[in-house]
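Help! Submission page says 'invalid entity' but I think these are all valid:
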Amino acid sequence: MSREAAFIAGLRQLASHPAARNLDDDCAVLEVGGETLILTHDMLVEGTHYLPGADMADVAWKLVATNLSDLAAKGAEPLGVLLGHMLGDNDAAFLAGLAEVLAHYNVPLLGGDTVSGTGPRAHGLTAIGRATYTPVPTRSGAQNGDGLWITGPVGDAMLGFEALRDGTSADHTAYSRPMALLAQGQALAPLVTAMMDVSDGLLLDAFRLAEASGVSIAIESEAVPVADVARRLDCLRWGDDYQLLFTLPPRCRLAISATRIGTVEARGFAPLFLDGEPLVNAEGLGFQHG
Amino acid sequence: MSREAAFIAGLRQLASHPAARNLDDDCAVLEVGGETLILTHDMLVEGTHYLPGADMADVAWKLVATNLSDLAAKGAEPLGVLLGHMLGDNDAAFLAGLAEVLAHYNVPLLGGDTVSGTGPRAHGLTAIGRATYTPVPTRSGAQNGDGLWITGPVGDAMLGFEALRDGTSADHTAYSRPMALLAQGQALAPLVTAMMDVSDGLLLDAFRLAEASGVSIAIESEAVPVADVARRLDCLRWGDDYQLLFTLPPRCRLAISATRIGTVEARGFAPLFLDGEPLVNAEGLGFQHG
């Protein structure tokens, strides 16, 4: 086990409080005064999570939207955010992007901290939400016989990243300004057996959902809506699209638009099958957080 | 106005939601399901907030304790923390210090995020607490005629910092492992007219309390308990002691140990008077966050 893996395992052990479902599950669930609160904290680091020279308005948008996406996967309604911000270049653009994204989602900035630093910048955001439905959806409830569904296409963020990286004129909005599917998450929460947002790639996130639920998941690659059919497998491995991935009992009706892309089966040889091929190891399936 | 000041002013304007009392007031107050939640987020950056080569167990302790101190100043009982952690050297020591401080305060780790990064490290912590008394104490309630009080001496952290910096054998616990005065904060919350923790130096923090309350505060320097009487003024200017500073109506009885160090007066020529001398400008009074 690497030192980093040992550290994360140690954190997970510390987070053994019943309120702390799992450090990997992106969100903590806290019962307070008859309400169920959902809490999530993510960091963006220059050079790791965004390109040096990136538009800081986009960085602010992404910092907020990715945390709100964690709330969306829990069917939560956001109550506010706290910002931890390392001061630096183009903070006026950061502020403008922050104002835009908070107005778009009608979420208040509750407070936070600004610090000085040298070297690559780090930005942290904590989002607090209120569950609109309990029990709150987790990754671990998928049942044999459920269908596997996704709210929309994957791969748009990949194309957007490439457009930015290569300086082409193609649209990079899907990468720069991802959307948190809050309304969809709230509509789905009462129906799903398991739900998560696709942040690290469809294959890797489906693998994790299967592992957490103790099931196997069979995905039909042709059924997955993708941004570029000529690069279907790339689209399935790329992250950053923030679609909601969920499992649904058979014959359950949906009030929102979504696509069935696979089936939940009893746990077999591998957690994940792609067109019948077993995928045993998470390595290489998508983006692994470092 | 500097670019940094403009950014912070912009953040403050964004944080105009009634739940967001003030980015400077360290904490946000959020009413949820009949409970009053207190939320705070602070960052520690290597080179800015701790010396490179510092014991990472102490860094973890301080990260948690300083955020819990913000809760203490609100009379809140902690419900949990979320950690944003940039991975790096001596993470095993960080984890050990984190386990120690969470056990000491009996506070659960609810979740968080670990990220890779290069260059100086940044660590963020969000602490969530439940108000034990409402209205929650603020900085802005000090009244003409109140006494100004402090829970204990200032300057111990300064001596600890110097011991560490100079490599002497003197005790540096007060600097490395500050205490969050949670029990004192809860005992004081129903009694005080204003309260805050002394994180940036007694003079600077008293100046801020006076400004927020629209009063003048007169401090008698001889009355202030200090760690080193030969360096009384240094002790009054140094931060990091995390004592609670509060104002109390006359003839109010205290169930905890504290020292009266001054008087609240109607707003006069300056927000702060030290032994009768007016202090008009916050610059140079203590540690200003960058």
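Support: the input was valid. A stray whitespace character was the problem, and the output above is from the cleaned input. Chain A has eight helices and twelve strands.
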